[in-house]
């Protein structure tokens, strides 16, 4: 592949990789990763599924490490706080540590899940990545946080839902492994927003009515006109600012955006499944992480979703999950109604998604 | 030499685009050196990023190179930061 590879869209490259490399061994993965200095990791992850971690009884306590990248891009950086260590003088380090803990706690207490992989995967976060870096991401193995430039964004460790969002990319990687492009990519993003918000709600003890349903509240710098980056309650209303533009998220299929940018608008069209979840949670009331969150968790981890699942596939899988866990009651009706309100039609019967052996049982690593 | 950088993706999903012409700039020679280095680099595995990672298109005199966090070379990183400025 040459330097000028713009004529081949990323999703096509992904498909090529999948077709060519169905059975890469762990050794081959290691060699390739070593050769390419991490460059191939995401694609390999998509192709192969995650690296299976050590077997054994997973602990009910997290194993956290926070590293300081010291404004460079070498990961993970220098270890500054390990599990059980006393707080650092650096509030960013402590926020990352606490956010990792909140995420671990929510997945364990609400869903019986032991860490990202369901098998006690150690949680690693690097803070102070680059200078004034306006982003946070999951690199397939760990979290990475920028400090923000202070002009548009503040420190990305501030909102706990951002930490939960990033770690949920890890959970998705180990379960449904939704392709990060188009509708499956928007679902991948939405699942991270949903559980990011649920982790915040669980941590603060907020009911559905008390929750702000915002993603990234507290992240925008003073003077920026907005209250967050996304609103699950009212997609498209999170910000409207001369520097940032206007929040482009649609809340229904009528506003679906077709674009080649951002992996096919994964951060834009995620507003549609985000809003469906909000509608379901508020229809059921109480604590959103309980019934609504359980239905979404069962869908993500149940093994019926294809990696290229579209909105309608995901909707059908949520209906099947609601029926499997709660029967043909108000939960199933609320799921169907919520998807209908955002313009996603669930195929008749609500179980169009193929059923099969669950991809992952609690406490067991996924079969690659 | 005209250098344009377009950034998409990221947690916020907010795009950024900026361009400069090296002619008459005090750092013009350095930027041209970086641009030549970036143009000469041939990524072996495309511009695949990670969830929420930034994706960059660097266009140098009409020819475009793609790259994605966290896999930028030092030259790509310096050039992107110089052109885009803000938090890149």
From TrEMBL, chain A:
Q: Where in the cell is it found?
A: Secreted
From which domain of life does this come?
Bacteria
Which residue intervals are annotated with compositional bias (Polar residues) in the record? 52-64
Peptidase M4 C-terminal domain location is 176-344
Q: Does the keyword Metal-binding apply?
A: yes
Q: What's this protein's function? A: Extracellular zinc metalloprotease.
* Identification of the protein by name: Neutral metalloproteinase
**Provenance organism:** Actinacidiphila acididurans
From TrEMBL, chain B:
InterPro entries hit by this protein: Emfourin (IPR049457)
Would you say which domain of life the source belongs to? Bacteria
Q: Specify the protein name.
A: Metalloprotease
Q: Which organism is it from?
A: Actinacidiphila acididurans
Q: What is the lineage of its organism?
A: Bacteria, Bacillati, Actinomycetota, Actinomycetes, Kitasatosporales
